[in-house]
Design a protein that fits this description.
Layout lengths: L1 H23 L12 E4 L6 E5 L10 H16 L7 E3 L2 H7 L15 E3 H9 L4 H12 L2 H14 L12
Antiparallel strand pairs: 1-2, 3-4
């Protein structure tokens, strides 16, 4: 039901953009307050509208998506299981926990947390502490994990992407 709802509204939104571009004669007439935008036709790959598409920017939660992508790859190939656990370090607690003032899963240092719960903490709560725990658990440090994310992004064709942390 939700999927059908979302699909219908996305299709409607796309149709509105197509009509807008047809009426105005080009995508160049489109204006937005957004600093960076890339609007691509998913079927053809054609860029319909672009504004500062190649300007480097802080990716915000895009880093969290890449963190989750790496988790899912490891779950798929068997290097990780949803029942595996990682220990919450003092570093993850300080940098991503309540004291950081950022989005958090409220993890306690020294405890162990299942991968499944960490994924939920990242996806649902946008938990920075959960991302750091994953980074340290997979690669030993957030810096090493960031290097792994950057390398994987380049392999996926994201040649201009560089990750500095898991959050």
């Amino acid at each position: 039901m939700i999927t059908n709802f979302a699909t219908r509204h996305m299709a409607f939104g796309t149709a509105l953009l197509v009509v807008f571009f047809a009426i105005t004669g080009s995508a160049k007439a489109f204006e937005t307050l957004a600093k960076e935008v890339v609007l691509m036709d998913a079927d053809t790959g054609a860029i319909l509208f672009e504004k500062n598409g190649d300007v480097p920017m802080s990716p915000a939660s895009m880093s969290k998506l890449m963190t989750v992508y790496i988790i899912f790859e490891r779950l798929q190939d068997g290097r990780l299981s949803l029942d595996d656990t990682f220990r919450i370090s003092e570093n993850a607690w300080r940098k991503g926990g309540v004291k950081s003032g950022s989005s958090t899963m409220f993890l306690e240092p020294g405890k162990r947390v299942r991968i499944e719960d960490l994924v939920r903490g990242i996806v649902v709560q946008s938990g920075n502490d959960a991302c750091i725990v994953i980074a340290e658990g997979i690669s030993g440090s957030e810096e090493a994990f960031s290097d792994e994310m950057t390398e994987r992004a380049h392999q996926l064709g994201l040649k201009n992407s560089t990750f500095k942390n898991a959050t």
